[in-house]
Automatic annotation (TrEMBL):
Belongs to the class I-like SAM-binding methyltransferase superfamily. RsmB/NOP family. SUPFAM superfamilies: S-adenosyl-L-methionine-dependent methyltransferases. InterPro entries: MeTrfase_RsmB-F_NOP2_cat, MeTrfase_RsmB-F_NOP2_dom, RCMT, SAM-dependent_MTases_sf. The active site is at C310. Keywords: Methyltransferase, Mitochondrion, RNA-binding, rRNA processing, S-adenosyl-L-methionine, Transferase, Transit peptide. One of its GO terms (biological process) is rRNA methylation. Pfam families: Methyltr_RsmB-F. The gene is NSUN4. It is found in: Mitochondrion. CDD domains: AdoMet_MTases (cd02440). GO terms for cellular component: mitochondrial large ribosomal subunit. The keyword Lyase does not apply. It comes from Pteropus vampyrus (Large flying fox). This is 5-cytosine rRNA methyltransferase NSUN4.
Length: 384
């Protein structure tokens, strides 16, 4: 019986004319189109497991699970709105202003029984900033910002760790300020909130990203301030800023493009771990050195620069800072000093989890109890 079935199938196959099957019903396996692609988010996680597993050792499992968990946000109060009313509403949510609740310099505990030294004025935090967060372990969410009575949005939701580079910049009234890689605009908005910027240049190479920056400025900053040309938005190549406006600015923020670690683990869109962007990713440290060098060249002697990323990578953080300082010394005979931010970490350790072993600068690491960051920042003074 089985033999008869086999023979019948063979006869049927011989008589079948597959050439007459319409093209739309034929099936041809297209490997590139039909096989599932390896997601960029998974490539990012594999990369982080290999590199950060070595870099952070026993800390990496905790950082890893925090990166994969929901991020925590802060509410930056808009000083151009009715800020006192907004602050009162945020306090009713049991949130606290982490900036103004931080202990003053004089209240910091001395180490090894020694008296805490007074800090230079240049190390003071940028003033007038108010940012509310929920306490450690509280995973409450802020409601979406709304349009206030003065025609601008009440507050801006952001990773609260992103405010630390602006605070570390230590703006003084009347400063000329450059935000070299400004988009999407959260740090630019924070710089304006200080009320210290005599002029603010906000630059980003991408015109689409500067478009997002313009939208934020229109939503949060009154038109008369924008019209007074206090803010200048440009889309120049930031690497050439030292040639365009050298020795010009009192304060420069260089928040460079990076692997944006948290974004890379959660979003396929614009993910730098896409296979097509491998070369771009490998060239990031070189780009970062060029941007930081340009920022330092654009700074007046005696001025200050803060370099920042939202990456955990020491190749994009400490190594870039050290490499840039060597480059400026060798090629331009410019001396740059890295500022010690130990006191700064102490001011905000109740809100953020800091990595204790940075060679230069400070690094906020994600932690389930305080799931901000990652955010690396390093303050420098151009001496010559």
């Amino acid at each position: 019986m089985a033999a008869l079935v086999v023979r019948g199938v063979r006869d049927l196959l011989k008589r079948a004319d597959f050439a007459t099957v319409p093209r739309r019903y034929r099936y041809k396996k297209k490997w590139a189109a039909t096989e599932p692609k390896f997601p960029a988010t998974r490539l990012a996680l594999q990369n982080f497991d290999m590199t950060y597993g070595v870099q952070f050792g026993d800390l990496w499992p905790s950082i890893r699970v925090s990166l994969l968990s929901e991020q925590k946000y802060g509410a930056l109060v808009n000083n151009f709105a009715s800020w006192d009313h907004v602050s009162a509403e945020l306090e009713q949510l049991n949130a606290r202003d982490f900036v103004n609740k931080a202990p003053s310099h004089g209240e910091l505990e001395p180490e090894n029984g020694q008296t805490t030294a007074s800090f230079p004025a240049s190390w003071d935090c940028s003033p007038n900033l108010r940012c509310f967060t929920f306490t450690k372990g509280d995973v409450s969410r802020f409601p979406p910002a709304r349009l206030g009575s003065l025609g601008v949005m009440d507050y801006y939701l952001m990773d609260a760790a992103s405010l630390l580079p602006v605070l570390a910049l230590g703006l003084q009234p009347g400063d000329t300020v450059l935000d070299l890689c400004a988009a999407p605009g959260g740090k630019t908005l924070a710089l304006l909130q200080t009320g210290c910027c005599r002029n603010l240049a906000a630059n980003d190479l991408s015109t689409s990203r500067t478009g997002r920056l313009q939208k934020i400025l229109h939503s949060y900053v009154p038109q008369d301030i924008r019209d007074r040309s206090q803010v200048r938005v440009t889309s120049w190549d930031g690497r050439k800023w030292g040639e365009l406006e050298g020795d010009t600015y009192d304060r420069v923020l260089v928040d460079v493009p990076c692997t944006t670690d948290r974004h890379s683990l959660h979003e396929e869109e614009n993910n730098i771990f896409q296979r097509s962007r491998k070369k771009e990713r490998q060239m990031l440290p070189m780009l970062q050195v060029q941007l930081l060098a340009a920022g330092l060249l654009a700074t007046k002697p005696g001025g200050h620069v803060v370099y920042s990323t939202c990456s955990l990578s020491h190749l994009q953080n400490e190594y870039v800072v050290q490499g840039t300082i060597e480059l400026l010394a060798n090629q331009y005979s410019i001396e740059v000093r890295v500022e010690d931010l130990t006191h700064f970490r102490k001011l905000f350790m109740d809100t953020f989890s800091f990595f204790p072993s940075c060679q230069v600068g400070e690094l906020v690491i994600p932690n389930l109890m305080a799931n901000f960051g990652p955010m690396y920042f390093c303050k420098m003074c151009r001496l010559t």
